[in-house]
Amino acid sequence: MRAYFPVIICLAAVSIFYCSDIFFSEPLEVTDTVKRSRMEGRLSAFVFGASGTIGGGILRSLARDPQYTKVTLFGRRKLELPAEGEENYSKFDQRVIDFDKLDQLDSSTFKEFNIGFYALGISQTKVDEATYRVIEGEYPLRIGKLVKEAGVPNFNFISGRGAGKDSWFLFGKVKAAVEEELEKMDFPRLTIIRPGAVISNTGSSVGLCLTKALDSGHRLAIDANTLGNIIISNAATESDKKFQILEMKDIARIEKELGVKTNF
Question: Which value, in Å, is the radius of gyration of the alpha carbons in the chain?
């Protein structure tokens, strides 16, 4: 343990330096000024990126939420969904699409949906810069344009902490450009989610246990199931805000406001 002590000190110092706005912000409170209620009626939703860490958390959360009665997964391939248990996977439909031929899609593809979740993405380490810009920069805007034309009233885009025009990193610059263009599309309701570190619920339990024990308030990290549950609960809740950007502190606040419980 003594050998790891310098490493722990360094990590703590870096975290404080980059995340001082989180550590030293005012305590989270549930205020009376935010009055939320669940939307009435049944909800139909689509998901891009359900095979990824965040998309998987959204998928599992949708399976457990009875208000979402129809869900369509769009992806390059069909996923193997779990057998029926506490979740309801019978409401899921899957559509395989060729992302290199998105021009073959039209807005009618999305007309049946109330809510859309876009969590598709790829690591910078897996592709070259040109490919990365296509996947992270072009795909979401082409899908967003079709979704807007279809009249989907509620679109949720998963971005990431550090998105900004002046970012030192390609990730941050590309995400910021997409956020700006999506806002210009003037959706009836657009929510941009900027999570920090997201811990998978399907891999090793060590990181997950540490996250829940040491960062239960989601100041720096959050597990995928909790994040997915917060995202779909927020989307299914009435709001007078047409455009929102949710940073980690906002994600934690919404979890408290909505009383989101994640036990899976």
Answer: 19
CB contact at 8 A, 174 and 131: no
Host H or E run for residue 155: strand 154-158
User: How far is Cα 150 from Cα 242, in angstroms, rounded to an integer?
Assistant: 17
168 vs 85, higher pLDDT: 168
Say how far apart CA 110 and CA 114 lie, in whole Å: 9
* CA atoms within 13 A of residue 139's CA, in its CB half-sphere: 23
Q: Report whether pLDDT(194) > 70.
A: yes
Rounded distance between C-alpha atoms, residue 156 and residue 232, angstroms: 9
Structure tokens at 46: 């689509």
Q: Where are the domains of the chain?
A: 42-79+87-258
Q: Output the CA angle 78-170-253, nearest 5 degrees.
A: 70
Angle of helix 224-235 relative to helix 248-258, nearest 10 degrees, comes to 70
**Is the model's pTM score more than 0.70?**
yes
| 138-171 pLDDT tens trace | 999 999 999 999 999 999 999 999 898 889 999 9
DSSP output for 164-211? -TT-SSHHHHHHHHHHHHHHHT--SSEEEE--SEEE-SSS-HHHHHHH
One CATH from 3.40.50.410, 3.30.470.10, 3.40.50.720, 2.70.40.10 for 42-79+87-258: 3.40.50.720
d(CA 86, CA 61): 11
β-strand partners of 193: 158, 246
How far apart, in whole angstroms, are the C-alpha atoms of residue 162 and residue 63? 30
